[in-house]
Design a protein that fits this description.
Layout (H helix, E strand, L loop, with lengths): L2 H13 L4 H9 L3 H14 L2 E4 L6 E4 L3 E8 L5 H9 L8 H21 L4 E8 L3 E8 L4 H9 L5 H9 L13 H8 L2 E14 L4 E20 L6 H7 L10 E5 L13 H8 L7 E5 L8 H14 L4 E5 L3 H12 L2
Parallel strand pairs: 8-9, 9-10
Antiparallel strand pairs: 1-2, 3-4, 4-5, 5-7, 6-7
């Protein structure tokens, strides 16, 4: 069985565990019996499991690693967590994947150590044949509330917008505010849950803010990356650096995060909230995906008033609906 065929089978199971043999037979132009033999081989290897019988059989990717550890936060070192708990379970992965995990795990554990105020920190790793997931949890105040209080924000949802911009820290003496930003960019999926809020960033560039019924204490960060990912830390860092520089000078801001449920982006106060701290960057890419329209005052505040006050920051709007594009053109024409 070739590596490409193996990956195709595992992908098919990950998408849907039902009717797998028939789907594979059609996809690869073989008999159902041949496809069933492939599945049987992967079961013998222990990377696939099944339940049910006959045409009702369903396949699942076997959980190859599932470990968790609760640590006392006081005196904890992120390197200790990496070396003792995470690294041994990733030793066979490609060097670039291990490097990505080393960076993201140590950054997120360090955040929990330095910022959560929790007595304990839990770290877990789950792995199957396709992906590895790591989660870091604490029982502290909660990341969104902590940022809200530190920055005097009106609503904890505004903290998510600030996190998405990058260069945000409640302890500027000891931290650069880059950890969460870059960890979210190097992962296939990055997920923060705290209080009633749930922020998700995935590899398709989708940023989603969800509200939950349960008001969970503390913070949980979940990260997922394909075991055969070709992504490197350097290429991600380079995306947000100025040419021939090594500084974090560019950011991509999902404008939709400034739009609370039931609202439209129409006011200057909304625009000021959006552009807060933009002057720390040389380039700000404003991603308008999911925003259907904006008001004249909002557009004017962003693209004329802010831009004139901060000529050293370049604003690049992308993914604009027709109505948004027209309003941006109007604001630019008024400069």
């Amino acid at each position: 069985m070739t590596a490409d065929l193996r990956r195709s089978i595992l992908d098919a199971i990950a998408r849907d565990g039902g009717n797998v043999a028939a789907r594979l037979a059609q996809q690869h132009g073989v008999s159902r019996q041949a496809a069933s033999a492939w599945l049987a081989k992967l079961k013998r290897e222990g990377i696939v499991t099944s339940s049910g019988k006959g045409r009702g059989v369903r396949y699942q990717l076997a959980v190859l690693v599932d470990v968790r550890q609760v640590y006392e936060r006081a005196g904890l070192s992120e390197d200790r967590v990496w070396r003792a708990q995470i690294a041994p379970h990733l030793a066979d992965l490609p060097p670039n994947v291990r490097d990505v995990w080393h960076y993201a795990v140590t950054e997120m554990v360090n955040n929990a150590i330095d910022h959560s105020g929790s007595d304990k920190v839990m770290v877990g790793v789950v792995r199957d044949a396709l992906n590895t997931s790591v989660y870091v949890a604490d029982e502290g105040e909660g990341i969104f509330l902590k940022i809200q209080h530190a920055m005097n924000l009106y609503d904890p949802r505004e903290a998510i917008l600030e996190l998405a911009k990058g260069k945000l820290t409640t302890d500027p003496v000891n931290h650069t505010g880059e950890g969460i930003f870059f960890s979210s960019k190097v992962m296939d999926a990055f997920d923060i849950r705290s209080g009633k809020l749930h922020f998700v960033h995935d590899d398709w560039g989708t940023d989603v803010l969800l509200e939950r019924d349960a008001d969970a204490p503390g913070t949980v960060v979940l990260m997922r990356l394909a075991n055969d990912s070709v992504r490197t830390l350097q290429e991600v860092f380079d995306q947000f650096a100025a040419p021939e520089e090594y500084t974090f000078s560019k950011t991509i801001v999902p404008v939709k995060l400034a739009q609370h449920e039931g609202e439209k982006l129409v006011s200057r106060s909304q625009a000021k909230r959006l552009t807060m701290r933009f002057e720390r960057f040389q380039t700000v890419v404003l991603d308008f995906a999911g925003v259907e329209e904006i008001g004249q005052a909002f557009a004017d505040e962003v693209f004329r008033v802010f831009q004139q006050a901060h000529p050293g920051t370049k604003l690049l709007p992308i993914n604009m609906a027709a109505e948004v594009g027209n309003m941006v053109k109007r604001a630019l024409g008024a400069r």
